[in-house]
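Most newcomers find our protein records easier to grasp once they have seen one. Read left to right, the backbone structure tokens trace the chain's path through space. Nothing more is needed to start thinking about how sequence determines fold. An example says more than a description, so a record of this kind follows:
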Amino acid sequence: MSILPKIAGFYHIERTLQPLTAVERGSYIPAMPVPKFTLRGFRRPREVASLALGKLERQVLDETWRRGELTVREVYVAFGENVAYTTLMTTLDRLYKKKLLKRRKDGRAFLYAPAVSREELEHGIREDVINGLLGYGADAVQPVLACIVDTVSETDRQLLDELDRLIKEKRKELKQRG
């Protein structure tokens, strides 16, 4: 059995249609590369946040990043009073329990503030995706890394050079540490 379906955790493969080329579309815009197949259930890194956070959770988190510290009432007003107050209270509590918000008591109300920045959340998502791909033992690492290098080199030689530079930089940093 191949390693790719094992990493993705799914064994069903669907064929996808290739996009029309620029000539077929009657346009000079180059066709965007698409995968030759998709694994049912596999998500791209940007889609991972959508799975971990609901639409309302993402909107509330965006509001806290925009405004800093706020109360449930302030979120309620910011949403134009279109979402039930208790729904927003539950959403803020869920984000707190997911460690994405911190809160402190102010009288009878809680004040909520971001516990992580947007960049930290995105970095954490990327880290989770990579750990998910590489977390299946040493036998799984080699094919994944080879696939990354092949994909990068097919699309962009400069990106391959940048990957090489980053590897050399990390080796130098690790050597200096000890």
User: Anything to note?
Assistant: The first strand starts at residue 13 and ends at 15. DSSP finds nine helices and four strands in the chain. Residues 136-178 form one domain.
